[in-house]
Structures are given as structure tokens and as C-alpha cells.
């Protein structure tokens, strides 16, 4: 397509050195790897495939029988190739010294960490960044995160998470780019580019890790770590495209997923790892297991011992063992028994050493450990970027009677809700080294822009209580004390408009946080109802890590602003939007269900045999107690201005296999504000060798329009855009009729049609 964002982005990824230079670099790295490999004993090789966590920070279940002293000795003996969760210039230097100064060959370790949406400066959670529909937001976010993490001695982030997520019950929806493979692919490539920059050798970049390979987001019933049953077609057409985009963007590493697919654990899945990733895609980085996912092959009932699990995983193509102790204690024996070839071990080790060379660790193992560089963390420059990216990530879901934007100093505003005064939740889950409570709260953000302090008053409503301090404090609402609601009602009676923060606190979404009820529930619902009884001018500011069910709030609130968890500058960014200093431009990367019973719900579904209620009888695909459409569809988002779409035009209604056609429409700003619109292109392949989705996103463009201004937006469609994994088991196009839409979201659009010859 013209200005196809994916193609443009891929082109920009081509490194700036000439092809000849690039080949030389590759050649010399390969030579160095081979020289080193030839000096290594089998034990030392296996050591490179072993990763341990630092004992002072755990991001998974604490492994049984771990002895820190033993691990220190193993590092010194060259039996630990990598560590995770060691952070800080000083700590990483100390840990690196153990390996470099003591082991026979002095091979440096590679330090990995979950730097998902920031290191100290928190940027919007990835789901929010995807709501910007702007790959530059995702890229810049990862660039800032990489710079801060690299300054603390981190070489490698376990991000981006690029799992397609269609089920809002799954807590890890917050870590990804939502439900769509096209948008997901663009965001995946942008994130890889942001983390890795043009060269891993720079002290401002880190190696990226695309995870979780594969189909982790398809866990049955939205329950984390649960079974996945998925067809090869859905795997290829929906789940894998973001991974392919990440590989094409040069991602250094890939992480397995915890789930089984068709009974085979991803970690020991030969088809995924050897056939597709390392075979078809020629991926030349390394594959790391997830936390003890090799050991968990036993829990899946597919191996009875760690040794058997190691045998399955290494032969399937998993190169490094995270916290499983499966490789380091079993691979040697497996080689001696002829069950694993030394060539297989060599291949895995080569891949690990290659990334270490590319990071420059053999030139200077301490190059990232520099306290001076840590000053970049939380710098004003990074906070300014965080604010800018955060406001671009906000999605306006409703704005009746143009209640927004609010007027500074002219309206009495009642800010209500514990989340509005919460300096922690906006930091979100997976917050790396963010200081607890360091975000700008919504209340602070509003107070920063309203000069007349008498015009803004706050009432907390029900309070948070600390519930289960596990990894980090988990906050819940105090359901037993409703006195706060009375105070809030008192305030609501006296103000012109209520700004009410509702949603989820930071750790309600994230790993291990699946939920069966995703409503705004309990005391928050009671708070809304009580306020609504006395003041109808309610602006709901949602803070959450997944789509939530809004029930009556959707109808009764005058305005709804989706802010997700926006990071360090959340409050300032939300205030920018509420008062019109930034006209909201975000669009949903996920469908919002009307009720949890609709999950999984996504726009690019298949038609059923009984999609329409033509006979007015009960036997069609629907629910008897709820509409089957989402509350807010994929791609949906409003602006303070209004946009009108007109004049869809196709340069031809026939597309010949080597040619292309242009599809265009005119977009006009018919409102009072300058604004940004994301114009979306969808197609439907009407008949295929297998059923095709009723709509598929194939392109989007962002345009800015002043009031009264119109622009013609043109997309180019060629054969490549219409290929899919067909019934014949290959990527192909099938001639036939197509529908095409240009629209403002996945449900509304101007329709055209063409035939592919
Ligand atoms: C998660 C990964 C993460 C790893 C290391 C696992 O539990 O699934 O996404 O990278 O822990 O912290």
C-alpha cells in the first residue's frame, strides 16, 4: 500500500553501513565465534546455555534447592552464560567480574531483565502505546527504556511481548499490542528498532527478545499458562506475523511460551522452533526458554525427568535454559549417550556468542557498567518524552454534549476516586526499577494546570488497602468502609463537573493476573452510582491494563477517557487531554466487550454459517441475553473535533496479479478543533480455500486536519497485501472478489469492491 507503514518501517531498519561493510562485520564476528568455540570444553559450551536469576529479585516461582554459593562457584567456573535480574552499574560490574576474572576463558555473561515499558522513567504500557496507532510512539518508548537500562549494565531486555491477545480475561493483554496481526507487526518491528537501534554495540541500546513463542495469548479461558489449541492456519495468519516482523527487523533473541500447542510444549516444539523460526525464517539469534519452562515440560506430562526435558528442548531448538537447571546438569551426559549431538550444542553456543560479540562484550565486558551514564535515568528529557507519548496513547471513548475539553479555572471540578490520587498505579505492571509511587497522579496533573486552586476539590471515595504483598504490594479497595462514598457525594453536589478515576490498580493486570470478572465492580461501581444520583456531569477516566466491562457506566457517564496505565507522567498527560491542550487521537487496539461472556471477542472473526437473523428466528449465531457486537470495536476512538468520510474511489475494480490499485477517500474536519485522525483500510477476501475473516486491517495513515480542511487519503493495494496461509499450506493469493473499506474504525467505513484476477 502507498505509504504502507510496515514497508516504510522495514526500509528504515536497514542499517546505515554499506552492504560490503556489513558483510565484513558479520564475517569477522563469525570468525571470532569459531575461534573461541574451538577452545571451549563441552562443559564450558553448556555453561553458555545456562541462565540464573540473581537471588535478590525473582520474577517467577522460587526454584527449589537453589544455593547461592553454588551458583557463584559455577559462574567462576564458566558454567553460567547469562544472568537475569542483576541491575545497576555497580552490581552488574561485580557479577561480571566473577565470570571474566575467574573463569578459564573469561567469557563475559549477558545480563537480561524485563524492561518492558521503561526502566526508571515509565512510559505507557505497551497496550497504551499501541493505542497511539503510531509506531514512532512505540519506537521512542523502547529507545528511552533501552538507554536507561543499558546505563545500568543491562544488555538484553525480555521485550517486546508481541502475543496477539483476544481475551480480556488474560492479564498479560497489557504487555502487547492487542488483537490484530497487522497492527501487532508494525508495533513489533518498531519496538525492536527502539530497543536495538542501529547497532547493538552502542551503549544506548540493548538486545531485544520477542516473546512468547508462540500463541501464549490464546490460553484457554484467558487463564494464564493454560492450554492452547490452535489450528496451523490461525497460528500462521494471526499469531506468527508479529514474530516474523520482529525477525525481519533483526530481533536478537526469541523467548518460548509456557503453553502447550496441540499437546506439545512450545519449549520443546520442533515445528515452531526448527521448522518455522530457524528453518523457514532463517532466524540466526538465540532462543531462550521462559522461566523454568524446560523444567515445566515435566509438569505438562511430556517428560518425566529434567534430563528428558533437556533432551526434548535442545533438540527442538531452545538454546538457553532460564532458571531450569536442566541443561547445565544433563546436556553433557546426553551428548555422551549420543542423544544430543555436539553439533546441536555448538549451534546453540554460536548463537549466544554471536550476540555477545555484537554487544561488544568481548571488547569491554564492563562497557555498560558506568555509574556516570546512569544519570540519564529520569532526566527531564526522558520525562518530557514520557508525557508526549502518554498523551498520544489516550483514547476518547465517549464525549456527550462536548463536556470535554474542560475549561481551566472556569468550572468547579470535583476529582473523585482513589485512583485519581494514586501515584503508583499509573506506573503499571512490569515496572522494572521505577520508584514506587513516583508517577504524577491525575489529581496532581489537574492541579498543575488549574491556577485557581479553589476550583479543584478532591474526594477519595473508598480507600485502597494493601492486600497480598507477594512480588510487590497488591492494592485492593476496602469493601467494608463506605464512609468515603458519603464524602464524595457531598463534594459531587457542589461542583459543575466530576472527574472520576475508575479501573484497575497496577497489579490487577499483568502476569498471573487472569480474571473471570472484568467489570468495574464492588465499591467502585457503588461510588459511580452514588455520584450519578446527585450529579450527571461525570467524566470517567479509566485506568486499566485490559479492556474492562463498563455496564451502566457506558450509558450514564457523559464522557469516558481510556488512559490505561500511562507511566511516570500519567497525570500531566491526562490533564493535557482533559483541558484540550492535546486533542485525543488514540484508537483501540482491542475490542471492548459488553460483558465477560463475550470473551474472546475480536473484529477479524470468521463469518458463521448463520451470521444474520434473516428469518427472525432463534437459530442464528448470537446470544439471547446480550448483543454480539462489542461495546467499542477495534480501531475506535473519538476526537474533540469530528471527521467526515466521503468519496471512496478505486483506480480500478480489477487487480491484476503483478499490478496494484489505489483506493482513496476524502476526510474532512467538520468540527471546531484541529485534530488528528487515523484513517484505516480494511479488506475482506469473500471466498477462499479456507474461511476468511470478515474484515482485516491492511493499512492506516494518520492525518492532521484544521477545522474545515479536507484531505484525500490514498492506499495502494497489491497482491502481496492479500496473501495468506491457504488450505494448501503455503502463503499465496487466491483470485476472486474482495470488499474494501476506508473508515474511522473496524465497524464503520465507506465500502468498495474489486476482483483479483
Ligand atoms: C515471564 C517472562 C519473563 C520471565 C523473566 C516469566 O515468568 O513469562 O515474560 O521475561 O518471567 O522475568
UniProtKB/TrEMBL annotation:
| Native organism | Plebeiibacterium sediminum
Give a single Pfam family match.
Glyco_hydro_3_C
Entry's Gene3D superfamilies?
Glycoside hydrolase family 3 C-terminal domain, Glycoside hydrolase, family 3, N-terminal domain, Immunoglobulins
Query: What is the enzyme's class at the highest EC level?
Result: hydrolase
Q: From the UniProt record, which GO molecular function terms apply?
A: beta-glucosidase activity
Which gene is the coding source of this polypeptide chain? bglX
Q: Which domain of life is it from?
A: Bacteria
BP GO terms, sorted: glucan catabolic process
Question: Its Enzyme Commission number?
Answer: 3.2.1.21
- Keywords of this protein's UniProt record, alphabetized? Glycosidase, Hydrolase, Signal
Protein known as: beta-glucosidase
Q: Which family does it belong to?
A: Belongs to the glycosyl hydrolase 3 family.
Organism lineage string:
Bacteria, Pseudomonadati, Bacteroidota, Bacteroidia, Marinilabiliales
Q: Where is the Fibronectin type III-like domain?
A: 677-746
What InterPro entries would the database entry show? Cellulose_Degrad_GH3 (IPR051915), Fn3-like (IPR026891), GH (IPR017853), Glyco_hydro_3_C (IPR002772), Glyco_hydro_3_C_sf (IPR036881), Glyco_hydro_3_N (IPR001764), Glyco_hydro_3_N_sf (IPR036962), Ig-like_fold (IPR013783)
Reactions catalysed, as given in the entry: Hydrolysis of terminal, non-reducing beta-D-glucosyl residues with release of beta-D-glucose
Amino acid at each position: 500500500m502507498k505509504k504502507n507503514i510496515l514497508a516504510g518501517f522495514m526500509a528504515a531498519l536497514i542499517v546505515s553501513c554499506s552492504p560490503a561493510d556489513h558483510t565484513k562485520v558479520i564475517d569477522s564476528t563469525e570468525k571470532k565465534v569459531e575461534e573461541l568455540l574451538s577452545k571451549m570444553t563441552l562443559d564450558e559450551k553448556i555453561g553458555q546455555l545456562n541462565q540464573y536469576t540473581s537471588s535478590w529479585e525473582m520474577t517467577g516461582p522460587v526454584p527449589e534447592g537453589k544455593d547461592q554459593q553454588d551458583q557463584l562457584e559455577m559462574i567462576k567456573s564458566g558454567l553460567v552464560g547469562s544472568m537475569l535480574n542483576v541491575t545497576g552499574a555497580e552490581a552488574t560490574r561485580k557479577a561480571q567480574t566473577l565470570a571474566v576474572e575467574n573463569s578459564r576463558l573469561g567469557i563475559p555473561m549477558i545480563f537480561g531483565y524485563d524492561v518492558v515499558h521503561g526502566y526508571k522513567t515509565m512510559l505507557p504500557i505497551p497496550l497504551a502505546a499501541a493505542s497511539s496507532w503510531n509506531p514512532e510512539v512505540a519506537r521512542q518508548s523502547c529507545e528511552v527504556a533501552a538507554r536507561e537500562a543499558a546505563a545500568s549494565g543491562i544488555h538484553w531486555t525480555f521485550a517486546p511481548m508481541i502475543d496477539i491477545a483476544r481475551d480480556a480475561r488474560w492479564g498479560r493483554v497489557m504487555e502487547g499490542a492487542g488483537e490484530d496481526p497487522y497492527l501487532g507487526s508494525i508495533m513489533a518491528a518498531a519496538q525492536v528498532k527502539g530497543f536495538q537501534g542501529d547497532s547493538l554495540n552502542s551503549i544506548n541500546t540493548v538486545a531485544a527478545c520477542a516473546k512468547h513463542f508462540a500463541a501464549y495469548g490464546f490460553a484457554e479461558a484467558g487463564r494464564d499458562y493454560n492450554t492452547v489449541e490452535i489450528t496451523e492456519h490461525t497460528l500462521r495468519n494471526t499469531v506468527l506475523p508479529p514474530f516474523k516482523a520482529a525477525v525481519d527487523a533483526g530481533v536478537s533473541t526469541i523467548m518460548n511460551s509456557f503453553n502447550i500447542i496441540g499437546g506439545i510444549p512450545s519449549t520443546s516444539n520442533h515445528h515452531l522452533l526448527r521448522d518455522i523460526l530457524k528453518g523457514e525464517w532463517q532466524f540466526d539469534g538465540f532462543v531462550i526458554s521462559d522461566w523454568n519452562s524446560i523444567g515445566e515440560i515435566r509438569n505438562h506430562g511430556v517428560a518425566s525427568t529434567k534430563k528428558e526435558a533437556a533432551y526434548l528442548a535442545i533438540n527442538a531448538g531452545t538454546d538457553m535454559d532460564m532458571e531450569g537447571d536442566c541443561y547445565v546438569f544433563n546436556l553433557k551426559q546426553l551428548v555422551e549417550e549420543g542423544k544430543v549431538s555436539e553439533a546441536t550444542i555448538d549451534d546453540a553456543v554460536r548463537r549466544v556468542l554471536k550476540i555477545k560479540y555484537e554487544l561488544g562484550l568481548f571488547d569491554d565486558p564492563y562497557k555498560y557498567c558506568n555509574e556516570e551514564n546512569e544519570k540519564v535515568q529520569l532526566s527531564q528529557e526522558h520525562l518530557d518524552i514520557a508525557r508526549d507519548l502518554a498523551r498520544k496513547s489516550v483514547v476518547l471513548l465517549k464525549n456527550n454534549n462536548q463536556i470535554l475539553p474542560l475549561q481551566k479555572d472556569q468550572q468547579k471540578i470535583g476529582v473523585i476516586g482513589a485512583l485519581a490520587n494514586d501515584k503508583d498505579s499509573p506506573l503499571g505492571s512490569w515496572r522494572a526499577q521505577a520508584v514506587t509511587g513516583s508517577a504524577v497522579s491525575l489529581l496532581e496533573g489537574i492541579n498543575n494546570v488549574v491556577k485557581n486552586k479553589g476550583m479543584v476539590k478532591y474526594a477519595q471515595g473508598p480507600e485502597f488497602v494493601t492486600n497480598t504483598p507477594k512480588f510487590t504490594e497488591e492494592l485492593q479497595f476496602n469493601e467494608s468502609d463506605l464512609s468515603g462514598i458519603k464524602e464524595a457525594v457531598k463534594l459531587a453536589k457542589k461542583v459543575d463537573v466530576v472527574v472520576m478515576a475508575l479501573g484497575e490498580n497496577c497489579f490487577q493486570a499483568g502476569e498471573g493476573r487472569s480474571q473471570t470478572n472484568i467489570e468495574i465492580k464492588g465499591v467502585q461501581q457503588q461510588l459511580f452510582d452514588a455520584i450519578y444520583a446527585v450529579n450527571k456531569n461525570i467524566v470517567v477516566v479509566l485506568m486499566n491494563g485490559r479492556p474492562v466491562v463498563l455496564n451502566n457506566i457506558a450509558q450514564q457517564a457523559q464522557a469516558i477517557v481510556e488512559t490505561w496505565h500511562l507511566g511516570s507522567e500519567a497525570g500531566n498527560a491526562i490533564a493535557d487531554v482533559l483541558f484540550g491542550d492535546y486533542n485525543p487521537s488514540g484508537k483501540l487496539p482491542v475490542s471492548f466487550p459488553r460483558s465477560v461472556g463475550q470473551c474472546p471477542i475480536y473484529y477479524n472473526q470468521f463469518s458463521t454459517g448463520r451470521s444474520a437473523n434473516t428469518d427472525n428466528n432463534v437459530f442464528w449465531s448470537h446470544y439471547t441475553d446480550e448483543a454480539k457486537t462489542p461495546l467499542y470495536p477495534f480501531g475506535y476512538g473519538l476526537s474533540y473535533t469530528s471527521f467526515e468520510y466521503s468519496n471512496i474511489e478505486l483506480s480500478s475494480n480489477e487487480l491484476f496479479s503483478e499490478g496494484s490499485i489505489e483506493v482513496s477517500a476524502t476526510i474532512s474536519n467538520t468540527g471546531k478543533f484541529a485534530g488528528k485522525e487515523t484513517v484505516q483500510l480494511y479488506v475482506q477476501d469473500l471466498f477462499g480455500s479456507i474461511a476468511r475473516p470478515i474484515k482485516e486491517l491492511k493499512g492506516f495513515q494518520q492525518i492532521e486536519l484544521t477545522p474545515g480542511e479536507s484531505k484525500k487519503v490514498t492506499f495502494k493495494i497489491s497482491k502481496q497485501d492479500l496473501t495468506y496461509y491457504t488450505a494448501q499450506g503455503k502463503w499465496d493469493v487466491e483470485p476472486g472478489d474482495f470488499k474494501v473499506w476506508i473508515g474511522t474504525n473496524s465497524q464503520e467505513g465507506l465500502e468498495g469492491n474489486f476482483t483479483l484476477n
